[in-house]
Amino acid sequence: MSLHDSYDDCSLLNLLKQGDLKAFAAIHKRYYGILYIHAYKMFPDREEVKDLLQELFTGLWNNRDEINFDLNLKGYLYTAARNRILNIFKHQKVKSAYISSFKLFIDNNSPSADKQYRMKELAALIEAEVSSLPPQMRLIFEMSRNANLSHNEIALQLNISPLTVRKQVNNSLKILRIKLAVHFFSFFLIFIYSIATLRLF
């Protein structure tokens, strides 16, 4: 057992703020298990829970200089985990409503020749923008889109972490959304929904 394991939370926070890796390891050891159980009860998806906890502890380390010495560490970690889960729920709710609205639009509107032409034009534009992504980002995006691989499957094939895969996919989506926002935006949304393998949402 490490000496740091016997320190109270306040002492560990002080050491963490100084960049003490052993203090960080002690905090991780002390709280990871109970946070996992807490998060899994709210959101029973093992991979998502592992990812959000990895992000939580990475954020704790990266933002250690901003730590408040009066911080209730346990309360902070529980709140941070809960907020991340609520963000996932919010995203899924928006995603579901978004797709449902466009499905309804598509079901009730037959595409005109002009729309079909613009959709083909937009398809070419999307491919061009995908091709301009940084090499690894493009590879991961295409593995997700074309091969329909999960983040874990991509991570295994490329020997990287699932969190890296998720970040690369999210970054590619941000870039594409910005670049494509000015080009037939409404048709872009219809196009995304109509091509099941183009997993932009």
From TrEMBL:
Keyword list, A-Z: Membrane, Sigma factor, Transcription, Transcription regulation, Transmembrane, Transmembrane helix
Chain ranges of the RNA polymerase sigma factor 70 region 4 type domain: 126-174
TM spans, by residue? 176-196
Example GO BP: DNA-templated transcription initiation
Report the Pfam families cross-referenced here. Sigma70_r2, Sigma70_r4_2
Query: Is Transmembrane one of the keywords UniProt gives this record?
Result: yes
**A GO MF term:** DNA binding
Q: Where is the RNA polymerase sigma-70 region domain?
A: 29-92
Query: Which family does this protein fall into?
Result: Belongs to the sigma-70 factor family. ECF subfamily.
**NCBIfam families for this protein:** Sig70_bacteroi1, sigma70-ECF
Name by which UniProt lists this protein = RNA polymerase sigma-70 factor
